[in-house]
Write a structure and sequence with these properties.
Elements (H helix, E strand, L loop, with lengths): L16 H15 L8 H4 L10
């Protein structure tokens, strides 16, 4: 996935490159069968629950 370019002027709140990337990735994940990486927690594989005896 392409990266948004860095701005030359001071950024507005929420316009940080990583935030823009996160917004794009979540938009892709909402529609596409191929999932983009968002955050470590969001993109993590589900943890298997221990089997009770």
């Amino acid at each position: 996935m392409g990266k948004p370019k860095k701005r030359t002027s001071p950024r507005a709140t929420g316009a940080r490159r990583s935030h823009l990337l996160l917004k794009l990735a979540r938009a892709v994940n909402a529609k596409s069968p191929v999932k983009a990486f968002t955050t470590r927690r969001e993109s993590a594989k589900p943890v298997a629950k221990p089997v009770a005896k």
